[in-house]
Write a structure and sequence with these properties.
alpha/beta; five-stranded mixed β-barrel
Length: 283
């Protein structure tokens, strides 16, 4: 059994080129960071599920109480409450009111209806229906649920909107911005309006009223609305943890591979040097 002498080990590290070392470390660090990001996402999901379970036992709030909570979560430099209407909520505000249970009496506007495109239910493509409602002086969007779409993209779904004064229960949801190829441009408006994103601050000018920067999701046992197929957490924490394990495994595999390639290259270089020396001695 042979061991590498100190001079051989020194030669091994001296043969490693700086660009190769930097490339190896950068990829390794990136993979490890992705793993920790997935673990962080898993922890966020766990905390949210715990919060939702806790909120199930809380008394439902009015829309005014929700607004007050959001305004109290943020104060501007003059130490006065910020106006919540028609603004993008801060992270603190969103975390304060997200998933809160509400009980609301509001009048539905059966003209201004938004259809969120590319929504799937049981392998069928359709839309989420968002309708404008107003309670006292506050206008907001209500997610009524899913309706099936047509293969013909020119045809919008047929459904009966909610109308009149309704009392309903639901929960608050801060809409997260998804990936879009381009910004939404509303040059030709016809109702119901098909959308790729629900952005209340950008939809306010279309209805002539200031929408609150959150959406009310109907409870699944509500009679009004359509198929209520939403889940507060789409990807469970366990799946994030599984992805984290994959990223960490890839990082380890990458490091082992790079070390093996370096050792192999060093062995080949040593063989080449020995062959050259032997040839020189023979000559």
């Amino acid at each position: 059994m042979t061991t590498k002498s100190p001079s051989n080990i020194h030669r091994l590290f001296s043969n490693i080129k700086l660009p190769w070392l930097l490339f190896t470390l950068l990829v390794f660090i990136a993979l490890v960071k992705l793993g920790f990001w997935q673990l962080d996402r898993a922890q966020q999901k766990i905390q949210r599920l715990e919060r939702i379970e806790k909120l199930k036992h809380q008394q439902a709030l009015s829309i005014t109480q929700v607004i007050n909570l959001a305004q109290n979560a943020y104060k501007n430099k003059s130490n006065t409450k910020a106006d919540l209407t028609n603004q993008v909520m801060t992270k603190a505000q969103a975390e304060t009111i997200n998933d809160l249970p509400v009980k609301i009496t509001a009048k539905f506007d059966d003209k201004h209806i938004f259809l969120l495109d590319n929504q799937v239910e049981n392998n069928a493509l359709g839309y989420r229906v968002f309708q404008v409602a107003h309670s006292q002086s506050h206008y907001f969007l209500v997610n009524l649920g899913w309706v099936i779409g047509s293969i013909n993209r020119q045809l919008l779904p047929q459904f009966t909107p909610v109308s009149g004064l309704q009392t309903f229960t639901g929960h608050i949801r801060k809409m997260e911005r998804g990936v879009v190829l381009q910004e939404q441009i509303f040059d030709k408006i016809s109702w119901p309006l098909r959308l790729q994103q629900i952005e209340p601050n950008k939809l306010s000018p279309l209805i002539g009223e200031k929408l609150l920067p959150f959406v009310v999701y109907l409870d699944k046992n509500e009679e009004i609305g359509f198929i209520k197929n939403w889940h507060p957490v789409v990807m469970p924490p366990a799946k994030h943890q599984a992805y984290a394990f994959q990223w960490f495994s890839l990082a380890l595999a990458w490091l082992i591979l790079m070390i093996w390639i370096t050792l192999k290259s060093n062995d080949n270089a040593n063989i080449k040097v020995k062959t050259t020396n032997n040839n020189n001695k023979a000559a």
